[in-house]
Automatic annotation (TrEMBL):
This is Mitotic checkpoint protein BUB3.1. Keywords: Repeat, WD repeat. The keyword Nuclease does not apply. It holds the Pfam family WD40. Transmembrane segments: none annotated. It comes from the Eukaryota. InterPro entries: WD40/YVTN_repeat-like_dom_sf, WD40_repeat_dom_sf, WD40_rpt. SMART domains: WD40. It comes from Salix suchowensis. WD repeats lie at residues 96-128. The lineage of its organism: Eukaryota, Viridiplantae, Streptophyta, Embryophyta, Tracheophyta.
């Protein structure tokens, strides 16, 4: 039997990478833009085909997740308990709101026009980014969960959430 050797990887390293571990990365649905969140407290937007950093925002703690809204804006969440909207082409950010513990995951629902976040405070929260800034104006709902939220996936009107219950 002859072993099949895969061809060498022909990828490339982006310039100005994060200085610590990457927590998530996402490609835009509409371009070669790449959104990267990191434990170095940054969210970075790259033009992957041009190998160029297009923008960067700092959090107060590790950034645990990020997602796109459109090609030049997105959302991020992390260890500083905040949910942020990032507009890279204007260098502007807003805090949509906060959780009571680190925010582990974030997703923008195009179907609902809302940002959904999952936190280690055992809640899912939905935010309307079209409203004025401030938690009292953008928070649509808070949904208690049985345990800390580690990940979730949403697809149209379906939603699935994962937890970890420690047993001894």
């Amino acid at each position: 039997m002859t072993a099949v050797i895969p061809p060498p990887f022909s990828g490339r390293e982006l310039s100005n990478p994060p200085t610590d571990g990457i927590s998530n990365l996402r490609f835009s649905n509409h371009s070669d833009h790449l959104l990267v969140s990191s434990w170095d407290k940054t969210v970075r937007l790259y033009d992957a085909s041009a190998n160029a950093l297009r923008g960067e925002f700092m959090h107060g703690g590790a950034v645990l997740d990020c997602c796109f809204h459109d090609d030049s804006s997105g959302f991020s969440a992390g260890g500083d308990n905040t949910v942020r909207r990032l507009v890279f082409n204007h260098g502007k950010e807003d805090i949509l709101g906060r959780h009571d513990a680190p925010v582990r995951c974030i997703e923008y629902s195009y179907a609902a026009g809302q940002v959904i976040t999952g936190s280690w405070d055992k809640t899912l929260k939905c935010w309307d980014p079209r409203g004025a800034s401030g938690q009292e104006r953008t928070l649509v709902g808070t949904y208690p969960q049985p345990e800390r939220v580690y990940s979730f996936v949403s697809c149209w009107k379906s939603f699935s959430c994962s937890y970890c219950r420690k047993t001894c």
